[in-house]
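Troubleshooting log. The previous run stalled partway through. Resubmitting the same two chains, unchanged.
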Amino acid sequence: MNEIAFLTPDPDVLARREAIVAGLADLVPTEALVTDPRELVPFETDAFTAYRRVPLAVVLPGTTEEVAAVLAYCAEQGVPVVPRGAGTSLAGGAIPQEDAVVIGVSRMNRILEIDHDNRTCTVQAGVTNLAISDRVAADGFFYAPDPSSQLACTIAGNIGMNSGGAHCLKYGVTTNNLLGAKVVLLDGTIVDLGGKALDAPGLDLLGLLCGSEGQLGIITEATVRLLAKPEGARPVLFGFDSSEVAGACVSEIIGAGIIPVAIEFMDKPAIEICEAFAKAGYPLDVEALLIIEVEGSEAEMDDMLARIIAIARRHGVASIKESQSATEAAQIWKGRKSAFGATGRIADYICMDGTVPLGQLSHVLRETYRIVAGYGLRVANVFHAGDGNMHPLILYDVNDPAEAEKAELAGADILKLCVDAGGCLTGEHGVGIEKRDLMLHQFSETDLNQQMAVRAAFDPGWILNPSKVFPLSFSRQGAS
Amino acid sequence: MVAEARGAGRTLAIAGAGSKAGVGQPVTADAAIASTGLAGIVEYNPEELVVVARAGTPLADIEAALAENGQALMFEPADWSRLLGSNAGQTIGGIAATNMSGPRRILAGAARDALLGVRFVNGRGEAIRNGGRVMKNVTGLDLVKLMAGSWGTLGLITEVAFKVLPRPETEVTLAVDGPGAADAAKLMARAMGTSAEVSGAANLPGPIAGRVLADGRAGRPTTLLRLEGFAVSIAERIGRLTPQLGAGHDIAQLDAAASQRAWAAIRDVAPFADGTETPVWRISAAPMAGHAVAADILGQTEGEAFFDWQGGLVWLRISGEDPQADRVRTSLAAHGGGHALLVRTGEDARARTSVFQPEPAPVAALSEKIRSSIDPDGVFNCGRRPFASVRRAA
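Second attempt completed without errors. Output:
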């Protein structure tokens, strides 16, 4: 199998393990330091479970000052640090290594301030994404970015990966909803970036940190933008006889000036898998399914849906199912939201995360089928058609090493296809270790050198989340 | 050209069309490099909601191409040329480099939020590509955000990709008679807290309302709330919004044409575009704090102010020649912080004053390290200092 390489652990750091642990014990309360081999097991990997490494130690600080002390200590000792939120990364962004200390923010989980008038919420970094919306829902507000892992994932992790979700066509991703952050730099300096004002001065360091995959600093607090909740939301299911027609329908909806809050696409294999699991009432005699959701008052939704349905009819839509109640709406979404879980019940799969320009969707879909069939495998596609973020699920048998390798090769071919079509390697999962070695397909060496030079302004010694994002053979860290 | 300049130890001043050349400390450079030759739309497929253009493309050309397809840059780029007393047009690269957003920023995000990709030349003379032309992209470090609002101090932007959206079908602005700035802040907060999707919220004191609004309301303080979208939606939202504004307000409706005129005037700071060099500050604070910052400053010095972005964007003009930077920044710091940019002032004051908001020392130091990782020899826009550090108090 085409194994992803890990760095050889620094023997010097490993030899000093006891002294390093003792040093950490001086900086944080006993309950914040995890060193027992059995207790380290949950930190061996994240949601990219194919790879595991036991870290040197795990620290779960309770305050920003403790994070600062630990980070400064690790930097001074030359010990790599892997920042961790809830460990839901699908790209191996939080997978540790044997010579690294994991700094997890999960214990820092207090909501610090809700400010309705300024429409902001300030939280500690370990607060989960959904906890914010839950807390402000009764007052008519919500926090917009909605990654599928929102029940578990932390704001720190969302910022680290610049997470998106199904509704970002209208509301944007994390970077568009983040106003401020408290950040610990490598030397332990604590800085506040941004705040409640809409614009920040100087260079946009907050924008740079967002999506930097834990390589520039550790976020300990965040101030996010709250939005007023729409009066209502209503999804409609459309079945089409071909993916091309479904794609053309999406283009025309957008061309008509309508921006639904979500446009989700499923192909026939995905429809079958999800329907068998969720009994959502999806039509099984169509080639493609669109779930289009609109928001507003009843009259607004009626108006917008009438426009959308008229366009779909012009494109010869095969079936239309309007949700008549909240239960029906939930049912429609249940099928879509259970796509990954339902797929996991019938086969092992790897989930790709390429993004393509909207005009390339049909072409990339066709080529995806061709690529996967070429390896003798099957694929199911569910994706955010409104923003071009594709998630082909390549099905294979994990117990068959030859199939596993084929699945990885097919995945890499699909991501290169996305880049060649004008898109990118990852829309929301991040590069992590998973797509590290494909970076040179999207960027030139000069592009990557410039990114690494900016990275070095924060962390010249490659202490923070090393061996992620940049190709190992190419990065300064790999070369050193 | 950049590599040559670097090799010869020369410095370069970057300019687009020059509409904002008057902002910032004067640039000292051996030569100027203008992007205006790098013009033209590279790619625009309306159904993809993205426009890619060379940096020197006139903004007007982009807006015209988008309008033909019923689309627009949703961040509503402002035009400060009249405020700064110039006739220069704007380039799309200049919009990106200065993160120039207008009133719709409170709902739709800033220019940096719509900027999907850039190509730029760094201080080593290397062509760098970052981002792309897709809505979601987390591949590598987001240098796009760094370039947005860097005022030409990192590199020469050569190409930009912006997200575009359908232009709203129509618009209506509710002109609410009355409240003073403090009550208006509360009223605007209530409006923004409804599901009416208010896309512009401004408060104008009487004399300024007289300069912005043409009708009989002139001279009375006015709070403006803009609604955009399909006519059906707007009617619905007016019904939702009005009861939230509280009793006792006289509410007029500006139709689409009047609404457009009013918001363009606010966007372009027309009330202070009077051909003078009296100091004009652009203060960005928490929305609820803007009125208090302005009241504090205007309690100590002569001038006038109006408020956009739900009260969080304060346009403040000081009478006389002294921009009074210390007073402005002390008041801002005393009300929760934010940042103050001295947009207009006389030449002498410009050279002497921190035009950009000074930053805490560790942040400024970090910004300086980032700058030198992109432009190690300081080829670009020397003198312009968007990341100078706060002077230590004696």
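Takeaways: The CA atoms of residues 175 and 252 of chain B lie 5 Å apart. The first helix of chain B runs from residue 2 to 7.
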